[in-house]
Design brief:
Helix content: 55-70%
Distance between the termini: 41 Å
CATH architecture of the domain at 313-425: Orthogonal Bundle
Shape: globular
CATH class of the domain at 313-425: Mainly Alpha
Strand content: under 5%
Number of helices: 18
Number of strands: 2
Order of helices and strands: HHHHHHHHHHHHHHEEHHHH
Strand order of the largest sheet: 1-2
Radius of gyration: 22 Å
CATH topology of the domain at 313-425: Helix Hairpins
Oligomer: single chain
Length: 444
């Protein structure tokens, strides 16, 4: 039982348990037994914090079923290793070296940190973020639905947004609140906070504390903080401008909105395409250019150690600087005057290649099983599933059984990570001291 297999089986166990609970009549608003495939699809989407659905969450599932979905979202967002570590801390059990390495691998840490401090920081950050979201959303939802229902809607959407899950109790997601500044900004804040990674949040907190204490020593940010924040800001800005440009005259999305509403809608789509899954406009009515831009942003995704998926912002930055180094005739990759290790560059290339391979295979299988659906819609669905986004053009429920199973597998692969899943399947490679002679190869 390797570390990779422990993590993959942990997520699989949570999915199967969730599917079993969602099959029960107590989980259904009708009181009847649920379709096992629907239950499995919903459970996988919740644990993998994706948000793709084949039935309406708010009307098909009972309050008990919605609570199960919310619990699965929280489990998926925090991760199997985080929750198992919390349980071990509660019972007072000590961690052995293998468990510490498993936690390090789960959060993609370059070295072992204090396990207790690490987990407490993650739980505290999550709790503060979600409670803040509940408070902000309650100010609007309580006006529309009353205190009790407004509180439940605030809790559900806050947890769903922080974990970048995209599940909504509303049948049209947040289309009905496309003009609400408080709802759009609160959901955006939660999506960015959960997707940017707990390390960045904690480092920002340490910087604020450093400034408030008036220390004269300069605070040095880590390379991860600089790359994640700058890449995220660039993507958010470019995404907002791009969506405004391609959807400005589209009467089915934003053309009939005021200038302010158009800006809010474009900003929200720029944020939510980064693995969140909420939408304030009809995705199925977007222009072809808008769909392709959305697919590009979905493929990039969120940041390491965050609740989102995709290839991650750091991978994009590494590959962009690889290209920059080649164009300048350099043999080393540098970012902000710091050299990136060779093994990190190779890993980034492997992540992109593996991700593209999974998306290609899944798209081909679904296209063969559902020839009546347009290719761009299938490709959009597959990228959304792999990047654990949850946006859809509306074809999810109409997919065949084979197509739904492929989407389930794609969501699982995207959540655990393509490299981690391959490592779990084939096992860890034995160390080798063999070196082979170099030879040139034509490229490009």
């Amino acid at each position: 039982m390797t570390i990779a297999r422990t993590i993959c089986l942990g997520f699989l166990g949570a999915i199967l348990l969730g599917a079993l609970l969602l099959t029960l009549p107590f989980s259904m608003a009708s009181g009847a037994w649920n379709d096992p495939l629907v239950a499995l699809f919903t459970s996988t989407s919740a644990v993998c914090v994706t948000g793709l659905i084949v039935v309406d969450t708010g009307t098909v599932f009972s309050t008990f079923g919605q609570c199960i979905i919310l619990l699965l979202i929280q489990v998926g967002g925090l991760g199997y290793m985080t929750l198992s570590t919390v349980l071990m801390l509660l019972i007072g059990r000590r961690f052995d070296l293998a468990q510490k390495f498993a936690i390090k691998e789960s959060f993609d840490q370059p070295y072992n940190q204090g396990t207790r401090t690490l987990i407490i920081s993650i739980m505290a950050t999550t709790l503060i973020g979600e409670l803040t979201g509940v408070f902000l959303l309650f100010t609007r939802f309580s006006q529309d639905f009353g205190l009790s229902q407004g509180l439940w809607l605030s809790i559900f959407h806050s947890i769903s947004a922080w974990n970048n899950a995209g599940f909504s109790i509303f049948s049209n997601s947040l289309v009905g609140y496309h003009e609400s500044i408080i709802v759009n900004l609160a959901i955006s804040m939660l999506i960015i906070g959960g997707g940017i990674g707990y390390e960045v949040i904690i480092e920002f907190y340490l910087w604020v504390r450093h400034r408030l204490q008036g220390k004269t020593r300069r605070f040095t940010f880590s390379l991860n903080f600089e790359v994640v924040t700058m890449t995220t800001l660039w993507l958010l800005g470019l995404g907002t401008i791009a969506f405004l440009f391609v959807e400005w005259a589209n009467p089915a999305t934003v053309a009939n909105m005021t200038w302010g509403e158009k800006a809010i809608a474009a900003w929200f789509q720029s944020v939510t395409t980064r693995t969140a899954g909420f939408n304030s406009i009809d995705i199925g009515q977007m222009t072809t250019a808008g769909l392709f831009i959305t697919m590009g942003f979905m493929f990039i995704g969120a940041s390491p150690s965050g609740t989102g998926g995709g290839i991650k912002t750091t991978t994009l930055s590494i590959l962009a600087n690889c290209t920059k180094s080649v164009l300048r005739g350099r043999h080393r990759v540098t970012i902000y005057r710091r050299e990136i290790a060779y093994n990190i560059v190779i890993k980034a290339i492997a992540v992109v290649f593996g991700s593209a391979t999974v998306i290609t295979i899944a798209t081909a299988i679904i296209s063969f099983a559902n020839p009546e659906i347009d290719l761009i819609q299938i490709l959009f669905e597959v990228i959304s599933a792999f990047a654990t986004v949850g946006l859809s053009t509306g074809i999810t429920a109409s997919l065949s059984a084979i197509g739904k199973v492929v989407i389930i597998c794609t969501m699982y692969c995207g959540r655990v990570g393509v490299l981690l899943l391959m490592s779990a399947l084939i096992g860890e490679a034995p160390p080798s001291q063999t070196n082979y002679p170099e030879e040139n190869l034509l490229v490009g």
